[in-house]
């Protein structure tokens, strides 16, 4: 396997990407078949690459390149993964328990306050601030919402395959 840095260096040499699989492949195949043709990389940034557009309209698109831990690149294939959703570890569970106790204490002292800013400050100063971060990632982690509430979305762990590209020169 090659690294993200090696892929980004090679991307500057004029390689082309062809979408060949991933979580939304069937939808893209049906709704946006123009995205299945080989597309040249036009511009490279540290966090994204710009792929050429169609010949008739010229509008291209940005492809975000996530953390290196979410990429597999072997020179012929680029796989981009979603971050995994995991259960809270012991340290995170302990901080949630401490936060609940702190919230109860604060509510007794300040019955007319909802305690939002106090709890925000509590989490910002604890060892696991991503638990209260909403949609913002802190150290590659954030709290999951919706059906995964109470879990952590972690960039350090590969989840489901998002996009798979064949690489051609």
**Helix/strand order:** HEHEEEEEHHEE
Percent of residues in helical segments?
25-40%
| Radius of gyration, whole Å | 21 Å
Give the biggest beta sheet: 8 strands, antiparallel
Write down the overall mean pLDDT.
92
**Count of helices?**
4
Strand content: 25-35%
- How far apart are the termini? 18 Å
The structural domain count equals 2
Structure description:
α3 (90-109) runs antiparallel to α4. 26% of the residues lie in helices and 33% in strands. The protein has 169 residues and is α+β, with helices and mostly antiparallel strands. A hairpin with a 3-residue loop joins β2 and β3 (48-51).
Short note summarizing the structure:
With 169 residues, the protein is α+β, with helices and mostly antiparallel strands. 26% of the residues lie in helices and 33% in strands. Strands 1, 2, 3, 4, 5, 6, 7 and 8 form an eight-stranded antiparallel β-sheet that branches.
Structural descriptors:
2 domains; 26% helix; 8-stranded antiparallel beta sheet; 4 helices; 169 residues; alpha+beta
């Amino acid at each position: 396997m090659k690294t993200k840095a090696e892929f980004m260096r090679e991307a500057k040499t004029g390689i082309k990407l062809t979408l060949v699989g991933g979580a939304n492949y069937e939808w893209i195949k049906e709704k946006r078949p123009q995205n299945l043709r080989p597309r040249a990389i036009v511009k490279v940034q540290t966090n994204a690459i710009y792929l050429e557009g169609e010949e008739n309209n010229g509008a291209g698109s940005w492809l975000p390149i996530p953390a290196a831990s979410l990429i597999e690149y072997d020179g012929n294939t680029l796989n981009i993964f979603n971050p995994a959703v995991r259960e809270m570890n012991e340290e995170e569970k302990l901080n949630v328990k401490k936060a609940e106790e702190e919230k109860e204490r604060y509510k007794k002292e300040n019955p007319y306050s909802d305690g939002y800013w106090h709890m925000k400050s509590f989490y910002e100063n604890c060892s696991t601030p991503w638990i209260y971060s909403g949609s913002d990632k802190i150290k590659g982690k954030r709290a999951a919402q919706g059906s995964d509430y109470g879990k952590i979305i972690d960039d350090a762990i590969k989840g489901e395959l998002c996009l798979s590209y064949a690489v051609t020169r």
